[in-house]
Specification:
481 residues; alpha/beta; nine-stranded mixed sheet; two-stranded antiparallel ribbon; 14 helices; 32% helix; globular
Length: 481
């Protein structure tokens, strides 16, 4: 054998020695016990498992898997067995920052203890839990579309190991909040799309598909390429703001509210962005559940606006029926115990603006999303034509169209095999326009999907606040199959 083949063989052997082993049956575990709402739950913890052969950031490209102990002894929980239990796939991503694999009982984003978390409740109700970590925007190798590629690789790991571990990999239900909610939506929407294949192959993802059964998404920061126009459609004319500055890494969070008033230049940006929303919305040709077109006129009024107002009315009616006093809500008309009208413009003013225009693609490259769409060579970049044309940042670059596409669910929804969707955005959420979730829900419904969409009353930008309802929904879709 010549020198070159010998060198190549040695290199391949070295690469193989360093590659992660994707065989779940070889993973060690620890036996653990916890109390969940007065119930003792025993489970096995398989932690820090690499889900790709060639991790780029090994600290984040891992998955933690938790399996109820009963499934190792032929037992059942909540009607599920080792063969039929759904797999709950919660990500811990916030702000498109890097996130490590989740652990049951992990404290909230601000370090607070809110009782049993989603992973604990899932285990207590008989689900297998698999929480993947993912790269994020602060790293040169964590720029878009790294996070969604990582989540897809984690799904492929579960699919490839379906026979080796408890749980039914045909019934994976993703869950996430905020940016994590957007990635949960994107994971379901972009299942098996070729756009991601090259990146998955380079990482050494398992040879399996990355489709999932269902999506749970709380307040998804999604459709980023049109989110600036959507935000100004809702908040144009609301000039005072309380802007949230967030520093976060692995759930160590510092939040600071900064109050201010839009400058003349920012008001001008708002005025230029608002008219861009109606043409985009109308291009989607959306319909409501009765088949009525959802459209807007050049002033931003129309059936789509009425559609969101009706969703707010439904939420308010639920609160009213529960005994809430809504007399101080000047944007509601209540007569005879019924919500009869919603003034959407007054609602927006009462909710208040949280972001300055453009809300996501900052002209000064100051947003987290600017960093998300950066590159290995340029930490922050624009990703919309509007911000690029109005940029105040010197030598500002712009993300390529393919990368922007791969971070949006809209190009993929019509082809996705994911049938079940649950989307929740609180009426007190101002992190993105309500239009974003309304578009997602309508597009999914128009594509023949089963969609459970609601705007919980007075809930701010948050997630996992209705765990009984969430897992009842999971039972309703998982047990019928």
């Amino acid at each position: 054998m010549s020198a070159k083949p010998l060198m190549l063989a040695a290199a391949l052997a070295a690469a193989g020695a360093n590659a992660a082993d994707l065989d779940f049956s070889k993973q060690p575990h620890t036996a653990q016990t916890m109390q969940v709402n007065g119930q003792t739950v025993q489970y096995r913890a398989f932690e820090n498992i690499p889900y790709v052969n060639n991790p780029v950031e090994a600290n984040y490209q891992t998955i933690n898997i938790y399996i109820p102990e009963a499934y190792f002894h032929g037992g059942s929980i909540n009607g599920y067995t080792a063969d039929t239990a759904p797999i709950f796939l919660p990500n811990k991503i916030g702000g498109y920052m890097p996130a490590k694999a989740g652990v049951p009982g992990q404290k909230g984003r601000g370090g607070e203890d809110k009782g049993a978390d989603a992973m604990q409740v899932a285990l207590s109700r008989g689900l297998v839990v698999a929480s993947p970590g993912a790269r994020g925007r602060t790293s040169p190798t964590g720029k878009a579309p790294a996070a969604i590629v990582d989540l897809k690789a984690a799904v492929r790991y579960l699919k490839a190991n379906d026979k080796a571990m408890a749980g039914d990999a045909r019934k994976i239900i993703s869950n996430g909040t905020s940016a994590g909610g957007a990635l949960s939506v994107l994971l379901g929407a972009s299942a098996n799309q070729r756009d991601y294949a090259g990146r998955l192959k380079k990482l050494g993802a398992a040879e399996a598909n990355d489709s999932i059964f269902a999506v749970s998404a709380y307040c998804p920061i999604s459709i980023l390429e049109h989110a600036d126009a959507a935000y100004e459609w809702q908040f144009h004319g609301v000039n005072d703001y309380q802007k949230m500055n967030i520093t976060m890494l692995d759930y160590n969070v510092e939040r600071k509210l900064v109050k201010g008033t839009l400058t003349a230049a920012e008001k001008q940006l708002s005025g230029s962005l608002k008219p861009q929303f109606a043409p985009y919305l109308n291009s989607l040709k959306l319909k409501n559940t009765q088949g009525k077109p959802l459209t807007l006129d050049k002033n931003g009024n129309g059936s789509f606006k009425d559609h969101i107002a009706a969703l707010l009315a439904q939420s308010a009616q639920t609160a009213l029926d529960a005994g809430k006093d809504l007399s101080a809500r000047n944007w509601l008309t209540v007569s005879g115990g019924k919500v009869t009208a919603v003034d959407f413009d007054q609602y927006a003013a009462a909710a208040g603006r949280q972001k300055t225009p453009p809300a996501f693609d900052g002209v000064d490259l100051s947003t987290g999303e600017n960093q998300l769409f950066g590159s290995a060579d340029q930490d922050k970049r624009h990703f919309t034509a509007f911000a690029a044309q109005n940029s105040t940042a010197p030598n500002a670059g712009r993300a390529d169209a393919q990368t922007v596409k791969m971070m949006s669910p809209m190009p993929y929804i019509a082809q996705t095999p994911t049938q079940y969707w649950r989307i929740r955005v609180g009426t007190n959420d101002r992190d993105t326009s309500l239009a974003v979730s309304a578009i997602l829900a309508a597009k999914l419904q128009n594509s023949g999907k089963s969609v459970d969409y609601a705007l919980p009353w007075d809930v701010p930008h948050s997630g996992d606040y209705d765990l009984n309802e969430l897992f009842d929904w999971i039972d309703s879709i998982a047990k019928e199959k």
